[in-house]
Structures are given as structure tokens and as C-alpha cells.
Specification:
This protein has 369 residues and is an alpha/beta fold. It is built from 19 helices and eight strands. It folds into three domains: 92 residues, Fumarate Reductase Iron-sulfur Protein, Chain B, domain 2 (Orthogonal Bundle); 137 residues, Rossmann fold, CATH 3.40.50.1860; 110 residues, Rossmann fold (3-Layer(aba) Sandwich).
């Protein structure tokens, strides 16, 4: 029989949970609800579950844990919420309470253990710098590669470095560990996450960098939105799309129909919408067209919040729905290696002919160096 838990983290979210009117506006945008169809799988349902845990009205049984961990943390419900409730904050507080009470999903436990032992969630014994064959050196610009680009979507890391080289930038690869997004989304305690933050900031600062760029939307969001809450970040932080959009970059023509997927962490979480589109507009002969849901209303790829690792079937359904919207395009471009990976899963499910690429992979061959 499941136990009631001591929900210490949820105590500070009591007012937010009591503000929810259960209007159901969140049902119209939740990517998980679209696939599951139960109220417990949408924001208002999760608010009720979290409030029940806090007041010890319900035990933390398997169904409660499942529904709280099937949230992709895409934040679209917050955009739609008339009461302006920070739903993601409530969900992540609930997750911290579940883990504090020994309730971590087995697949998440494996990710956490690997991240703390190896510095990445993939079980790679090498560091990011070693995987890319780079050496520590002082430079004005730092490149924070991210675990997924370094160990799973290597083409993104190589394309980013190639572009910076063609532009003559004085840059170095940061000797990083996981940014901590995996840990924080799953609900690992703040002290552990803060330790990871401090290690990364110290590693970058020791290289004398004035600015750090990111090709991963999740890593960027951590440094821009989360790190300043816990540690001092003594350098400028920009996503690679922002950095390149400000450059007088010359690109070769590309005669293809292109559309763009806004990663949740870059868009709704961090407010970066224009830079990727500005960069795409610089490609001669390319025909750009938005998907029906774009910018603030963009659909989630389904890979965030720990959903892909714990519930791959659900994640696949959400990704397939997003790929469906890009049926008119030759290339579906995004700016996050995790989105690239999950959208490709959706492409395989749909047997879609659309090509899935990260923005840097698309433009690297077009950059006139």
C-alpha cells in the first residue's frame, strides 16, 4: 500500500495550487492530454494531485507518481492559464518531494546516477572535451556543447565548431559536466543541482571567457533562467542562434521549403523566437513557412521533463503529432539536439519524408568561410 508523504517543497506552492479554478483551459494545449485524454494528465489534474499530496489527502501511489512524471514541462499550460499559475514550478516541487521520500522512477534513477558519476546522463566515461578531442585553452568565447550534442548528436557539436571557425572566432570548448537540467526536471534536490551549477560556472570562468554560447536549448535555459537563482554567472550567455543572428554572415543558396520548430526551453521558457528565424531568412532561395502552431503556441516535441526516458511510447506520440504539422516542408529545422532526436522518432513513426535538422547543421555547409 502506498504511503502518504511529507511534501515540504510543495508547502511554498500552496497559494498557487489554491488559485487554480479548474477551468480546463489547459486541456486545449497539453501535449500529454492530447495523447492520454485523462484529466489527471493535464495541468489542473496535476494541481489537484499535488494539493492532495501536500494535505495528505491522497497517498503517493503509482498512478499519482505516473501522472506527475508524464508532464513534459513545456509550459504551454501556463501560457493558456487565466490565473497565471506557474504549473511547471508546482510539478517540479512535487517531484522533489516524491524523490525526497524515496520515489524515483527506475529509468530516472539510472540517469541521475550516471550524471553524478560520469558528468552526463548517457553513461559515457569520457568528458565532453575528451569526446570532442579538444584541449583547455583561454579564449574570449566559450562553447558549452551539452551532453546530447557531444555524445548522441555529434553533428551539431561539429557544425557549431566549424561555423565559429569559419567566422574566425577565438573560442574554446568548456570542460563541462551536465548542465543539471536532467537533475532539476526530474526533481533532484537543490543542493545537488547547485553543486553541478557551481562546477560548470567555475570551469568556464577559469578559461577567462567573456561570453558562452550554447547549441542546446535546455543547457541555455539552465544558464539563463535557473543558474542565476543559485550561483553568480560572470559571463554573457547566448544561444548560438542569437550569436549568429547578430553576425554579418554570408550564406549560399538553398532551394528548399523550410519550417521551424520552437523548442520549449528556448521559446516559452526563455523568450527566444526571432533569432533563429532571422538566421533562416538569410538563406538565399530558401522558402520559409511557419507551421500552424508556432512561436508562443508551438507544440512540444514530447521529449522534455524526463518523459522520453520514462515513457518513450508517450513521447513518440507527441513527437509524431508535431512532425505531422511540417508535412508541407522539405526540412523541419529546430535549435535543440534533444528536439532533433525526438522529432526524428516522430518522423520514423509517421514514415514522414521531411528532413529533421538542427539549425547549425543546416547552415554549416552554406557558410562562406
Amino acid at each position: 500500500m502506498a504511503d502518504y508523504i511529507d511534501a515540504k517543497n510543495l508547502k511554498d506552492a500552496r497559494n498557487a495550487m489554491m488559485t487554480c479554478t479548474y477551468c480546463g483551459f489547459c486541456k486545449s494545449v497539453c501535449p500529454v492530454y492530447e495523447s492520454i485524454g485523462w484529466d489527471s494528465s493535464v495541468a489542473r489534474g496535476r494541481i489537484i494531485l499535488a494539493y492532495g499530496l501536500l494535505n495528505k489527502d491522497i497517498p503517493a501511489d503509482e498512478s499519482v507518481v505516473e501522472n506527475l512524471y508524464q508532464c513534459t514541462t513545456c509550459k504551454d499550460c501556463e501560457r493558456r492559464c487565466p490565473s497565471r499559475i506557474e504549473v511547471v514550478e508546482v510539478v517540479e516541487r512535487a517531484r522533489r518531494d516524491l524523490i525526497a521520500n524515496g520515489m524515483m522512477l527506475p529509468k530516472h534513477r539510472k540517469l541521475v546516477e550516471s550524471t553524478l558519476k560520469h558528468g552526463n546522463p548517457y553513461g559515457e566515461a569520457r568528458s565532453v572535451a575528451a569526446a570532442l578531442g579538444t584541449e583547455r585553452r583561454r579564449a574570449r568565447l566559450g562553447y558549452f556543447v551539452g551532453c546530447t550534442s557531444a555524445f548522441r548528436n555529434r553533428g551539431i557539436a561539429d557544425a557549431t565548431r566549424s561555423i565559429l571557425g569559419k567566422l574566425g572566432e577565438d573560442f574554446t570548448v568548456v570542460d563541462e559536466v551536465c548542465c543539471g537540467s536532467v537533475l532539476q526536471r526530474i526533481g533532484v534536490d537543490e543542493a545537488t543541482v547547485t553543486d553541478v551549477m557551481e562546477r560548470n560556472v567555475r570551469s568556464a570562468a577559469d578559461l577567462g571567457v567573456e561570453e558562452v554560447v550554447f547549441s542546446c536549448a535546455g543547457c541555455y535555459r539552465m544558464f539563463k533562467e535557473e543558474y542565476p537563482k543559485f550561483v553568480d554567472v560572470p559571463f554573457k550567455v547566448r544561444h548560438i542562434s542569437e550569436f549568429l543572428a547578430d553576425k554579418d554572415i554570408k550564406l549560399k543558396p538553398l532551394d528548399k521549403k523550410i519550417t521551424y520548430h520552437d523548442p520549449c526551453h528556448l521559446g516559452r521558457h526563455s523568450g527566444v523566437y526571432d533569432a533563429p528565424r532571422k538566421l533562416l531568412s538569410k538563406i538565399p532561395k530558401a522558402e520559409f513557412k511557419e507551421m500552424l502552431h508556432n512561436r508562443e503556441t508551438a507544440l512540444c516535441c514530447g521529449g522534455g521533463g524526463g518523459v522520453r526516458s520514462a515513457y518513450p511510447g508517450l513521447s513518440e506520440k507527441v513527437a509524431a503529432r508535431r512532425v505531422d504539422e511540417a508535412a508541407f516542408a522539405d526540412v523541419l529545422v529546430t535549435t535543440c539536439p534533444f528536439c532533433v532526436s525526438n522529432l526524428r522518432v516522430g518522423k520514423e513513426k509517421n514514415l514522414s519524408p521531411v528532413e529533421i535538422k538542427d539549425l547549425v547543421e543546416l547552415i554549416e555547409p552554406l557558410v562562406e568561410g
